[in-house]
Design a protein that fits this description.
Helix content: under 10%
Structural class: mainly beta
CATH superfamily: Immunoglobulins
CATH architecture: Sandwich
Largest sheet: 9 strands, mixed
Number of strands: 11
Order of helices and strands: EEEEEEEEEEE
Distance between the termini: 46 Å
CATH topology: Immunoglobulin-like
CATH class: Mainly Beta
Number of domains: 1
Shape: elongated
Radius of gyration: 15 Å
Length: 122
């Protein structure tokens, strides 16, 4: 398992909209062989203003995270509403915990930028 952290920023989203699914594919250090994540438990946390800011959402399998193929290292993030504390910058990371070894790795992190919305949701 390589310990590389990719930065993936999501810009130009509108406050109050649904964050549609984004797929992440994980590979071995050769960059072509899929990383088998059969032993991994993913978690995403999203925080306001900084990586240490106020926690706005924790996404887990069934609540914002979906395995496309655990054996082929494919995971989707999304399906939740971006309705936290208005427009601004929110920071996230995607962490995997390997259940057998207990190793914890953060592979992806970045920013979600929300623009203000004129239409108010009911």
């Amino acid at each position: 398992m390589a310990n590389r952290v990719a930065t993936v920023n999501f810009t130009e989203w509108v406050d109050g909209d649904t964050f549609t699914a984004r797929r992440f594919n994980f590979f071995q250090s050769d960059g072509t062989t899929a990383l088998d994540l059969s032993d991994a438990v993913p978690r995403v946390q999203i925080r306001k203003g900084s990586y240490t800011g106020k926690l706005m959402k924790t996404a887990t399998i069934g609540d914002g995270l979906t395995w496309v193929s655990q054996a082929d290292g494919e995971l989707e993030v999304g399906g939740f509403v971006l309705d936290w504390e208005g427009a601004g910058d929110y920071y996230y990371d995607l962490q995997l915990t390997y259940t057998t070894s207990g190793i914890i790795r953060t592979y992806v992190r970045g920013k979600i930028s929300l623009m203000p919305q004129a239409t108010q949701n009911a």
